[in-house]
Amino acid sequence: MSGIADLRPLARRREQRAWYWYDWANSAFVTTVQTVLFAPYLIAVAEKAACGYTSDDGRDCARDLAVLGLHIAPGALPSYIVTFSTLLGAVLLPLIGAIADRTARKKRLLGGFTWVGSAAGALLFFVEGTDWQIGALAMIVANICLGAAITVNDAFLPLIAEEDDRDRVSSRGWAWGYLGGGLLLAVNLAMVLLHDTFGLSESMAVRLSMLSAAVWWAAFTIIPMRGLSDHPPVHEVAAGGGVIQASFGQLWVTLKELRRYPMALLFLIAYLFFNDGIQTVVYAASTYGQEELGFATSVLIGTILMVQFVAFFGALLFGRLAASMGAKKVILGGLVVWMVIVTVALVLPEKALVPFLALGVAIGLVLGGTQALARSYFSLLIPRGREGEFFSFYHAMDRGTSWFGTLTFGLVYQLTGSYRPAIFALIAFFVLGGALLARVDTARGMRDAGNV
């Protein structure tokens, strides 16, 4: 039998190439809908429902919406929707991860969550006039399904790449995601900004853009669905009943056994801090640029697009650095750069375009790289057969605690009246995250998880 060639590396490379496309597919929905278009469009629809006009008419809408007996300002509606769906998703993700670990049909889970989520996203096209309720329900379903699908997708990483190859594979996936998301966002922003040229109303241009992102997400998912293989479960936790009941049993066992993986837990706490800092900087960048530095919307849009494409190269660069230095050292180096970014932002002169763009380049370089390597590094600390569960904890940590950074940003702004100390305050998240990550013993974590 020694003369038979080992074809497993070729099979893994084929699956890896297919796997990259899922980051390409879902990132377009994240950038076009979640990041740029959904919130301002839904606010306009909600204002019309509450007051009969929008703030674009030059009048402030002072009336609230009545939602389940609560009074909600139209401007706050998108934040409440995203927060509710994010917290609900954080509760559901561990169960979904346990189900993924107990089934060989992981592809069907990936496709099922994707296509339900993209169908919900496509319903945003029908949000017009005063029908904000359609948008609220559609976004809740789409956001939950997106989190579930990404959890299942990340659980494929340890199955299709050996330990010493995961940094490269994860980085390429993130790079493809930024490229795909940036390309569709550029097309959609052109359609929205030049809607008159295309004979469209601004509302129709926004609705078509959100529809295109949902279709993009659904259509490109066909590639990983065809290229990935179903992997049978390994090291299943003994639990009786059907898949759902057994998954609850496995989840309970895993929660009790988490103390056996202290390095994985320590990394998750570190990730809580530094990832929340990253997400808050990205969230607050446009507000900081417009309100504190006085840049026009066109400059901010151009900067967002630039960050997307720079992040493509940044993710690839970090993957190469990790191959020679190790993922942990490169992540720590990236966190130092994030500290420099928020420090420079504290003293950045008003309307200084070149330094602002340089800051955008720096964000792009470390944005994709730190997140990509965090994913691959965590995969080393996961016991085999528990990929779905542990990545569900990873994303639940991301989603369930993602309000810490924004709360800090808002409180510091409220106390100081300036966005400069507010954005600088986020340095605490990078310092704490980096200090905790530095204490993670990679070799011990791998031994605890039974990895090579």
TrEMBL record:
Signal peptide: none annotated. It comes from the Bacteria. InterPro entries: Atg22-like, ATG22/LtaA_families, MFS_dom, MFS_trans_sf. Residues 263-452 form the Major facilitator superfamily (MFS) profile domain. GO terms for cellular component: plasma membrane. PANTHER family: AUTOPHAGY-RELATED PROTEIN 22. GO terms for molecular function: transmembrane transporter activity. It is a multi-pass membrane protein. It is found in: Cell membrane. This is MFS transporter. Keywords: Membrane, Transmembrane, Transmembrane helix, Transport. The chain crosses the membrane at residues 21-43, 77-97, 109-127, 133-161, 173-193, 205-223, 264-283, 295-318, 330-348, 354-378, 390-413, 419-438.
